[in-house]
Amino acid sequence: MAFSRLWQAFPGNDGTSVMSDLPQRLLDYWPRSAWQDRTILVAVSGGADSVALVRLLVELADPATRKKLVVVHFNHRLRGEQSDADAQFVEDLAKGLGVSVRTGIASGGWHRDAKGGQGLEANARGLRYAFFEEVAREVEARYLVTAHHRDDQIETILHRILRGTGIAGLGGMQTAREWLPGVGLVRPLLSFSRDDIIEYLVSIKQVWREDASNLTIEFTRNRIRNELLPYLRDAYGEHVDNALFRLGQQARDCQEVIDRQVQTLLDLAVQTSTFGRSVVVRKLADVPPYLVRELFVRIWDEQNWPRQEMTQLHWQRLSNLAKSDDPTATDTLPGDIRAMRDGDVLILRSV
Description:
Elements lengths: L21 H8 L2 H4 L4 E4 L4 H13 L2 H4 L2 E7 L5 H17 L2 E6 L10 H24 L3 E3 L4 H14 L3 H4 L5 E5 L2 E4 L7 H10 L16 H17 L2 H31 E3 L3 E5 L8 H15 L8 H11 L7 E4 L3 E6 L2 E6 L1
Parallel strand pairs: 1-2, 1-4, 2-3, 4-6
Antiparallel strand pairs: 5-6, 7-8, 8-11, 9-10, 10-11
Helix pairs in contact: 3-9, 7-10, 7-11, 11-12, 12-13
């Protein structure tokens, strides 16, 4: 069981009492009525953020709900004995709190096929969430809760800016969304800073594990955390964090308006058939190109068509096809999706 290296940086480590308002703030965001008496998976890595999350839920839950909390931990086996120690720490923590725990473990050598840091991160996430899904179905969970916090959100927004993103991506992570049918993914700490979280842990004298890999610059997110953000704060002031967080909030607000307009277009101009979708293009004549592109993104999502290789250029080609004067124009898109004009109708189908 390891103390965080940050432990000494906060008041209360000398035995004095430090009160945290985090429990009440969490209830203000996620009221008990929304999750009491529901089976909840709590993703716990052993780090400060997820340890704080499970401690908060145990503290705030009534006895019946406490019995329905299930801690889930996945051992990626990337750090040898340290990974095993993380798993043991989480099991001991859950046992001490009186809640159930399920631990998964990766097979040996899985990471050898990953290409680069981002490939490794993506593969690790895939394994982890596959295990979470297995447990969720087994225990009939209503929610999966994760400990992403404000600092994570800021890093996500900055990462997406650097990678290239639209308004939806600029909004960062959603506070809540459907993860599996009937199972929600909730991030109740998303508006809380890491300092808030550490202060809470210190106030209850709770230790946590420190992942040394978070301090390396091997992965893109870690480089943003350990190099780029510190540089921006030094060069432009600490308000950089608030500016990026506000930008994400504003982008999410804009996306909500866009989503409503897209739904109106979907109801007005799009029909479903056995082969795919058909779009009545004359009903898009006065619609701004951006909204037309967003309409196609929605169609792709609803059809479960792959869009990993769909670029801004592909969406623009679709928009141009919808507004083309050529009533027989066609195009083929990534994932073997065929777009064909048939007069006033644009037919979209998987080949």
